[in-house]
Amino acid sequence: MTNQEHPIGVFDSGVGGLSVLREMRALMPNEDIIYFGDQGHVPYGPRPMEQIQDFSEGITRFLLAQNSKIIVVACNTASAAALTYLRQTFPDVQFVGMEPAVKPAAEKTQTGKVGVLATPATFQGALYASVVERFANGVELFQNTCSGLVQQIEMGNLEGNETRKILEDALHPMLEKNIDTVVLGCTHYPFVIPMIEKIVGEKVRVIDPAPAVAKQVKRLLEAGGMSNQNGGELRFVTSGEVQSVKSILKVLLGIDGEVEPVTWKTDREILNR
Ligand code: DGL
Do 77 and 108 share a domain, yes or no? Predict the structure, then answer.
């Protein structure tokens, strides 16, 4: 197998990274992709940074052992906690990570008030602080961690009352402050954009960074001569329950795919079951 034919490795704490995978598929339908959902540890958001680094390192080693040619950290939380660490630990590997899209939000807002939805670890990390410092000049940011929303989305509950209540509690106070832009700083949240739009109305812009991330992956592959024209296979791996991941794949992507189980041996080491 040539390097071009190697898969793209993608990971998230759970199904959130599928919002990025979806965009990558649309843009690069001939790439093989291996997707790792760490359902055994979801959610990452409330966990200590060091632990998220360990998980991210273990998953990266696993994806590299499957010959991944590039690693997409399709998780804001893992990017916040571990991207710098991963780049230091694997200096020969190309990584694409996520950061809350404060820059485009700050460029587009008319009211100068922007809502950001992300996990506690993302808000605590140095990455977010640096994005705010660089791009949010003169713009007021209102943050909310939407506690419990990741778990609802993992269960496929995109429209139920719990999901609605979490989002209303987060967004109503922001609307009172006159926000006109909402940044989705967690890759799980694009799956509830219809609900978010219902709550905020059509005058508020919702920014999902997934298309930009997919474009960046494509650019890097092309620049490195690593694009694949002959693939298109998807592999799904989970550290959680195969059946529930299978059914959520159906709900979120309409895909009837096989899901391969793995087990964590330690916080940094994965066993193929
Ligand atoms: N999808 C995630 C993110 O982008 C992680 C959510 C979580 O596990 O808390 O931040």
Answer: no
The pLDDT tens digits for 109-128 are: 999 999 999 999 999 999 99
Question: Which of the listed residues 10, 21, 145, 186 should we mutate to test ligand 1's pocket, taking the one with most ligand atoms within 8 A of CB?
Answer: 186
User: pLDDT tens digits for 180-205?
Assistant: 999 999 999 999 999 999 999 999 99
What's the predicted TM-score (pTM) here? Answer: 0.97
Which position has the token pair 């106070």? 173
Query: In degrees rounded to 5, what are phi and psi of residue 270?
Result: -110, 140
- 167 and 223 share a domain? no
The distance between the two most distant Cα atoms of the chain, rounded to a whole number of Å, is 56
Look at residues 189, 208, 227 and tell me which one is the last residue of a structural domain.
208
Question: How far apart are the CA of 206 and the centre of ligand 1, in A?
Answer: 18
Q: What is the residue range of 253's domain?
A: 3-98+211-272
CA distance 69 to 223: 13
Q: For residue 132, what are its two tokens?
A: 């705010």
